[in-house]
Amino acid sequence: MLVHGGGMSHETDQTTSTPGTIWVGVDGSSGSHAAVRYAAHAAQALDLGVHLLHVIPIDMAMSPMFPLVPEDMEPVAHRLLAEASQRAAEIVPADRVTSSLHHGQRTRSLVEASGRARLLVLGRARRSTVERLLTGSVATGVAARSDGCVVVVPADWQAPDEQLHVVVGVKDPEHCADLALRAVRLAADRGGRVTFVHVWDLPWQYDDQSSSLDREWTERARAAVDAGLQEVLALHRDVPVQLRVLRGQAARVLQDQAATADLLLLARRGHLLPRGHLGGTARALLREGTCPVEVVPPADASSDGGDLVVEEGGQETAPGRGAPLPV
């Protein structure tokens, strides 16, 4: 049978979180442990707090022989939060770690949390029948609908020993500004560098025709992306940046480019559906990424008037400004 507790999520216990706090979805899995560590390290670097959230789902399929209600699961939920709090307190001061327990639909509850968080962190572990994971449809559903940035962290994540390396997947200049601004701010705050990657391709049926145009299309795409980045990068000239324009299958190329990175940033494009839509490339990277993958939602109002979509071969171009980015 299904256990129901109402249509909207509600809190049963909470220690107060403050604005600018990094929130973490906690479920006791190996991915969740990595998410807590990631959030704590980020909070320590940015002088923020960490808020831990566990959601007891109200829509679990259960046997009629065991008619549990969500409240019966609270002791386990409190234990999971206490253990996560101890992990976080090993990295940040304990007085900067808060927690809350909710009853509700997990995806909806986490989407609501994203609107209150500076960043929402979810863990991703290898699929298992033993662990209950904040992954798959939950993480993807949250990233597709969130009001704020969501990062999904693999279970084997380790804090970087060197300067932060951020890789940014740039799909078109319309989203360059928001992504570039977040990337360079992260790098500036943590003494890192940024690599912008734009990927283009055509269906295989057109290989013969496009082979002679590879260089021209790559150069036009580079000029367009470079122009879209210049205004933001001018505000952070101290951050080392690089731009790579490559041909290939987008998810595969981005996976390769981010293989040694500390963070991969992707944009969630606006969509006619409520709360947006997550494309196949982002879904694949959230599922298979070897480093943390952060999805940045579209801005409420775009200040960029550019209308070029460089993935379509650079049919329209924008004039560049400033010095071109290094290859």
Total number of helices: 9
CATH topology tier name of the largest domain: Rossmann fold
Poorly predicted tracts of residues: 1-14, 129-135, 301-327
CA-CA gap between termini: 58 Å
Class based on secondary structure composition and strand pairing = alpha/beta
Shape: globular
Record the strand order, biggest sheet: 1-4-3-2-5-6-11-10-7-8-9
CATH superfamily of the largest domain: HUPs
Mean pLDDT: 79
Radius of gyration: 21 Å
Total E-strand runs: 11
CATH architecture of the largest domain: 3-Layer(aba) Sandwich
What does this structure look like?
- With 327 residues, the chain is an alpha/beta fold.
- The protein contains nine helices and eleven strands.
- The chain has helices at 30-46, 74-89, 106-114, 137-145, 176-189, 207-211, 214-233, 250-257, 280-288, and strands at residues 10-14, 22-25, 50-57, 97-104, 119-124, 150-154, 165-169, 193-200, 241-247, 263-267, 293-296.
- It has an eleven-stranded mixed sheet, sandwiched between helices.
- Strand 5 (119-124), helix 4 and strand 6 form a beta-alpha-beta unit.
- The radius of gyration is 21 Å and the shape is globular.
Quick synopsis:
The protein is an alpha/beta fold and 327 residues long. It has nine helices and eleven strands. The protein folds into two domains: 10-154, HUPs (Rossmann fold, 3-Layer(aba) Sandwich); 165-312, HUPs (Rossmann fold).
